[in-house]
Amino acid sequence: MEYSCKDLKVGKCEGEKLVDGETMPLVLQPSEPNKNDIESLLLTLRNNKDWFDQMITKNSAVLLRGFDVKNAEDFNEIIETFGWEDIRYVGPAPRTHVYKRVWTANEGPLSEFIYYHHEMVLIKECPKKVILFCETPPPEGGETPFVPSFRVTERMLEEFPEEVKMIEEKGLKYSFTALSKNNTGSMRGRGWEDAFGTSDREEAERRAKALGMDMEWLEDGGVKTILGPRPLTRVFEGRKGRRMWFNTMVGMHGKELSSATMADGSEIPINVVKRCEEIIEEESIQFKWEKGDVLFFDNMALLHGRRPSLPPRRVLVATCK
Length: 321
Ligand SMILES: [Fe+2]
Known about the structure:
Blueprint: E1 8-11, E2 17-19, E3 22-24, E4 26-30, H1 38-47, H2 49-59, E5 61-64, H3 72-82, E6 97-99, E7 102-104, E8 114-117, E9 129-136, E10 146-148, H4 149-159, H5 161-170, E11 172-178, H6 192-196, H7 201-210, E12 214-217, E13 223-230, E14 234-235, E15 243-244, H8 249-252, E16 258-262, H9 270-282, E17 294-298, E18 302-306, E19 314-320
Parallel strand pairs: 4-5
Antiparallel strand pairs: 1-4, 2-3, 5-17, 6-7, 7-19, 8-18, 9-17, 9-19, 10-18, 11-13, 11-16, 12-13, 14-15
The site of fe (ii) ion has 3 residues, from loops.
């Protein structure tokens, strides 16, 4: 679909890549310099809603750049324009509510790399879209790199056809340990009370069940959540039959608070995990955040992460069904 919209101009950004014929991210700018105000942008989005939505699926990542998007209120207006339903975040990342549908992105220390993931990949219903807004670009680092997920599957199949087949057949099993709120000395993640939105153990168990998790309470007041079997790859409608690397094997394998094994408990060969980590990095795409950037991710198609940065950095997020 090479249709372009007359109200937006296709631009370029440093770091963009051509992947299987599509530019990632697709940069969209004001058609004329004086049309960069928020009202013009909202009108443009309202008039081109369906087209814009198709572009997100087609290019996997769309970057609105050069518009005067100032704050969480403006960002929220942009989100509301599309009419996509909100989806509440569930997971270990510390996040703060900012305004209506807008939250801070992961508030973990800026010095840490947040490893590549599909947002809420382990939850039954995960967001189709993850939308980010850059209020304060970091002085150095702090990119939000992303990876076309199907490329990881393709390359893993080239190098490890047997292993991929085996893991696919068996499925994956994950565990994640959430400490108790009273016990989290560091910013390693939130306590289970915050993660499940309750301090009541039975209620937390009910909520965990509803999300497809089992729980084991630990002596120190924390809890180990176990999930599985979960698939290695998935194919989603409308995405060219691409097989997405829809798992968090590398992110959770062999960590202090998490694990990933095959669903029957057998270990995933370490060379497979290590090489997969390299492939993900090799396939990653990144650009430098600019103030006012709004980035739309197709969460079904992309893994994303966060590189370490110097402060200050403020990127806000909204997640949609
Ligand atoms: Fe994320």
